[in-house]
Amino acid sequence: MVPKGFTALPLPIAQLSLAAVLKCGQSFRWVAYPLVASEEIKAEQPTEAPTHEYRFALKDRVICLRQDSNSLFYRAVFPKDVADACKDPKVAKKKEEETLDWLNDYFQLDVDLISLYTEWAERDVVFRENVKDRFAGIRMLRQDPWENVISFICSSNNHIGRITKMVQSLCTSFSPPICTEPSPEDGEDPSSPQVYHAFPSPKQLAADDVASKLRELGFGYRAEYVQRTAEMLCEEHEDPQAYLLGLRKLSTEDARAELLKLCGVGPKVADCVLLMSMDKKMVVPVDTHVHQIALKYYGLRGTPSGKGGKVPMTPKIYEAVGSKLVETWGDYAGWAHSVLFTADLRSFASYGLPTPTGTPVKQSLPPTPVPPTPSESDSDYFGTSPTKKRKTRASGSPSKLKRVKTE
Question: Is 316 a catalytic residue?
Answer without folding.
Answer: no
